[in-house]
Amino acid sequence: MSAFINVPRARLLEPNAALSPLLQEILRHCERRNIRYDRPLVHFVMNLLSLDPRYELFMETVSAERRNHDDFVEACCTVLNDDRSPTLITLRMQCYFLGNFFDRDEIVEKHARNLQAKTFALTKEIIDHDVITKDEQDEVFNKVIVDIVVNMGLGNPECKDVMAETMRALNSVMSRSDKAKFVTLDRKERLMALKDIREIVAGIRIFNKHSGNTANGMADLPKIIDQSHESTKSILQITLCEIMDKVNLLTSALSAAIAYDLRNRSIITLLPENITADDFETIKDLLAMYRQHEVYTRKLIDELAGIKLLIDGCKQEYEARLLRIHEAVQYRTAIPTDRVFPKFSELTRVWLQFQNFVFLLSEMNQISNTLTSLTERCASFDDLAYRLLGESQIQTDIDRLNKVSAKRLSLPDPKSCEIVPYEEGMQMQLLKFCLWHLAEGKGLLMPGSIELGVCRVQKEHYLFNIPEPVTFFDEDPNKYFFKIVETARKKVQLICLLNMYDKLQASYSAPRCEGFQMKLTTTYDQEVQTDLHPIPSNIDREYRWNVWDYRREAIRLANIRTKRTTSVQTLESSRAIPKSTQVYLDKVQGTQTRVSRSTETEQRRQTTGLKVIEPSAPSPLKVYALTLAQASRSGFNRNGER
User: Fold this and answer.
1) How high is the pLDDT of residue 6?
2) DSSP state of 444
3) How many Å apart are CA 497 and CA 295, to the nearest integer?
């Protein structure tokens, strides 16, 4: 990003962590009101509006009142609400340009990454494929041909003539033995060899095209780049002319509606009956939008001029490389091939630079078309501007400044300022707009005149449109600086347009005119040597800067007391959750009694109809009955005598 756009890009586009709670509220309000928003644009608007100390977002003593935060949220939603307003469209242009304005090296690297991602699978197959048979070797080199055509931009890989000519160029470089050696290399060496083969084969095809031999499907990049450059240049010039027509109309209309009250040191607004104060402010916002578009278009034109110089240098180098190869090929019997092949590689590198220029011009056209489409979305106020213009004539900036070209700034008794002549390369503040018109006209953009002279204050240079106000400014510069800062806080689109981000950030602690002093932004080189971690870090992860975060946490903890936690185990998830059960192990136990006893009863008589099951062993009672029967049969009488 050049010094022409001197805006802290990262601090404006990246989200501010301190504003993240308010971001969520803004997004909720936008969804509730059906406001279409882009998150990068919301971050951009929040970072600009947060520079206003009215909201007390970054004060050392943050107010606990919710009203300031609500006002900030409402202000952001109000800016994002009207999709066709000049203010929002200007902010969209600034956000888009800061995020997409390219660095040449970044565009080249982006293209290289995209091309590498598209051909990654093909390259991986070439360097990872194990070759055993001749057919597999031929298949690998067919993929090599496609890889060369796609990566070097040699034509359409689906065209048979392109593939056949590339194969002939490859065969002129590699013999059958070289191909067999290539497929035996390991992965890293094969990738390096593939890159060399790409450059040499592409250089041969470029040389054949220049020599008049067949070069089917190859584009004439030098001719295409010249045509593309001329087309881009004409489009940007036409766009700039259309912008300046709008700028001249709006500036003339505003100039016709104001008058200078030098006695009271102010600007008086003289509006027709059918024009309101809001209409006048709309015209000023519309002029700021077209001035911003003019700034970006002139930036693209300057960038295009730099690219043109690089293209001319690249074309000269391209012709010189071709001439050297012609000389080497003419005496190829005396020059070994290991000295010719590097020349083809050098020619291919120049060819790739041509391709990079094509992508640069394409990116530039895309940015220009997007900016133009944004301005076309704005509502038309031409009728309002012509009514405000009245019978006055439309004047250009040059016509307007020629009226005061004979006058000069003068300070009979300088107090704070110094009048110096304009010098080439002098860095002017406020984008060369008149300081007094910006301060007293509340954002009125009138171009300053370098013919009048330059007013130097605190090593910064400012311009005026008329010579009288420089005396007022010399008496109290901080008064006018505060008016400009206060205007930029209300019209945030002026912050990027006039490169005032650092000034607003430096004056954040001075919300009122009393005691306001513009701080001079100085930079210097300094080196500091400290001990490694002299103080142990103490980072509180639970710290919250917003009091309302603590209140929400307290409400959440209070609500937990009334809640009850339950859980359910289902059959479907029973195996998903590990479960375990603890049981007591088996224990062996025994019981021993003191005396073992048993009881034997006499066998009952057999009952009719019942079957008596005889035991297998004789019962003791039965044995005793048999013994008594035998004794009676032996002849003893009742008294024991025979």
Assistant:
1) 42
2) -
3) 8
What number of CA atoms fall less than 13 Å from residue 632's CA on the CB side?
6
Q: With 60 as the cut, is the pLDDT of residue 475 above it?
A: yes
- For the record, the structure tokens of 581 come out as 């059960």
Q: Taking Cα atoms as reference points, which of 47, 94, 119, 198 lies closest to residue 505? A: 47
Q: Note the pLDDT of residue 68.
A: 78
pLDDT digits (tens, 9 = 90+) for 280-303: 999 999 999 999 999 999 999 999
CA-closest candidate to residue 340, choices 195, 181, 213, 173 = 173
Crossing angle for the helix pair 134-152 and 120-128, to the nearest 10 degrees: 150
C-alpha–C-alpha distance, residues 13 and 6, integer Å = 14
**How many Å apart are CA 510 and CA 499, to the nearest integer?**
19
Average pLDDT along the chain: 82
* The amino acid at 567: S
Q: Which helix (H) or strand (E) holds 19?
A: none
pTM value surpassing 0.85:
no
Nearest 10 degrees: CA dihedral of 466, 467, 472, 473? 80
Q: Which of 430, 510, 508, 423 has its CA nearest to residue 473?
A: 430
Q: How far is CA 262 from CA 87, 215, 265, 270, in A?
A: 31, 75, 4, 15
Question: Three-class SS string for 223-281?
Answer: HHHHHHHHHHHHHHHHHHHHHHHHHHHHHHHHHHCEEEECCCCEEEECCCCCCCHHHHH
Query: Tokens 């010094």 identify what position?
Result: 3
Q: DSSP 3-state assignment of 531?
A: coil
* Pair 268, 413: CB distance under 8 Å: no
| Displacement of CA 169 from its chain's centroid (Å) | 43
Residues 83 and 126: their CA atoms lie apart, in Å, by 52
